Amino acid sequence: MRQPPATTALSLTLALVLAATAAHAQCSDAGLCLVGDHATRVTADHASPQHTADLTYRLGVTGDDDDLVVHSVELGARLALTDRTGLAIRLPYRSSDGEQGSASGPGDALVLLEQAIVTSPCWTLGLAAGARLATGDDDAEPDLPQAYQPGLGATDLILAATARHRAWSFALGYQLVEDTFTGNETTPIRRGDDLYLQVARAFTAGGFDLTAEVQAIQRLAATEIRLADDTTIEVEDSDRLQINLGLEARRSLIGRLDLAAGVAVPLVSRDQNVDGLQRALTVSVGLATGF
User: Fold this and answer.
1) CA-CA distance, 257 to 210, in Å (whole number)?
2) What is the C-alpha radius of gyration for the chain, rounded to an integer number of angstroms?
């Protein structure tokens, strides 16, 4: 069943800005980006059903001094409330392992409300507003730094605008981070806001629906660490521009059940990982269905 243009716009909005969990190289938990949202990705030759659900496993490695390995399992859903309005929810469970130990638990949930604004035979335009909720524990293992914790300890607001022209899609997003330090006992941090730009191209090859994308994420203020004497210091280069490349492949298994896999690597990355968001490589595999 083919979606009407309005629903296509809603699906695209979620696919471009939904990011509640460990997904991207360099942007794993920030909330603005996610490599290939399996439930709502618009492909070159077909669109997704109005309602979708997916279950995804992601593996990320930092490749830096902390040498973290991050596992996450994510449950996602999108409901079409009307032909122009959609509601998306994503619930993660995250586990981090490194030389200092391991920490695990529910991560920060993401809720987004999508709205189609303009539709035409060639273009679809949409807006999205939502929040990354501080449902994850930022001090699950008090002896470990923030980078290990399943939650970031802040509620962030997310605003985004999206556009699609045939197989091309674009997104511009802003994440307003709550002005507070995390409750982590080892390295309480305060993040800056993020500005996000994404360009993606959908196509088909060898019986697979493929989506290639380039993402740029600019942290607008340096990350701060609060010391034991309540003074703060800025983390050097923590506001550096990040640029990522991602590729997702998707194929139908039976009926409306799809298998999807993705990979992401950074072209430009930060030199530090105090917030636990940096990735040198991320791979994912999951199942998605529409109804």
Assistant:
1) 16
2) 18
pLDDT at position 253, please?
94
Alpha-carbon distances of 211 from 169, 182, 187, 281, rounded to whole Å: 10, 35, 37, 17
CB 173 within 8 A of CB 20: no
Q: 135-180 pLDDT, tens per residue?
A: 999 999 999 999 999 999 999 999 999 898 989 999 999 999 999 9
CB burial readout 194-208, b (16+ within 10 A) else e: bebbbebebeeeeeb
Q: Which two tokens stand for residue 115?
A: 């709205």
| 70-107 pLDDT, tens digit each | 999 999 999 999 988 989 899 999 999 999 999 999 99
264 within 8 A of 278, measured Cβ to Cβ: no
- 1: DSSP letter: -
Closest CA to 189 of 178, 174, 204: 178
Burial class (CB in 10 A: 0-12, 13-18, 19+), 259: middle
> What is the spatial distance between Cα 167 and Cα 174, in angstroms, rounded to a whole number?
24
* Cα-to-chain-centroid distance, residue 57: 13
pLDDT average, residue stretch 181-197: 94
* Start-to-end C-alpha separation, the chain: 10
